[in-house]
Amino acid sequence: MKRQNCVSCGAHNAMHWFEGRDFEVDFKALKKPVAALSGWQCETCSEIELDPGSAQRYSDASDELIYQSRREVANEMKRIRRKLHFTQRTAVELLSGGGHNAFSRYERAEIDPPKPLFVLMRLLDRHPELVDDIKSISEGKEPWHPSSAREGEHPLT
Fold first, then answer.
1. 14 burial class (0-12, 13-18, 19+ CB within 10 angstroms)?
2. Would residue 74 count as lying in a domain?
3. Residue 37's beta-bridge partner residues?
């Protein structure tokens, strides 16, 4: 039986060889099985070190999930923007203040949108009536007056 010292915890002869083990890669809510991997596992700390071929297949599966997630977010951003009747330029001006092609890059899944922007888009999807409020606030028609708010209360509620 093949054995070696653990590279993680240093336990003597604790790493044992395994072959044909199935793993599952997950990213956010996505999962992907990766079958028949080989490598070393420590009996003491459970550290796993995959052989080069298995590590590459595991990494490729992980990359696929990241790209799939990015495409799903991109499609959702585009769907919501169109539902709200925003051009990409209007969406940038009202919601993000980013560069002129930011939404194009989000919708092509080149980059992930900032989380607060994605959350805002999802909220607008559920409450499109808030678009008029956002436009008013963005245009400076509804100034924020924190001194008029009572302690502990939000003046917009």
1. buried
2. yes
3. 21
Q: Is 125 part of any domain?
A: yes
Helices 52-83 and 115-126 pack at an angle, to 10 degrees, of: 40
* Phi, psi of 50, rounded to the nearest 5 degrees: -80, 150
Question: What is the domain range of residue 31?
Answer: 3-139
Domain assignment present for residue 68? The answer is yes
The answer to whether the beta carbons of residues 109 and 70 sit under 8 Å apart is: yes
**Under 8 Å between Cβ of 123 and 104:** no
pLDDT in tens, 70-121: 999 999 999 999 999 999 999 999 998 778 799 999 999 999 999 999 999 9
pTM of the model: 0.74
C-alpha–C-alpha distance, residues 114 and 84, integer Å: 19
Name residue 24's beta-bridge partners: 33
* Residue whose pair of structure tokens reads 């044909």 in the numeric block: 20
Give the number of domains in the chain.
Answer: 1
Q: Domain containing 18 — which CATH number?
A: 1.10.260.40
- Whole-number Å distance between alpha carbons of 97 and 90: 10
Q: Is 58 helix (H, G, I), strand (E, B) or coil?
A: helix
- Considering the domain boundaries, does residue 153 fall inside one? no
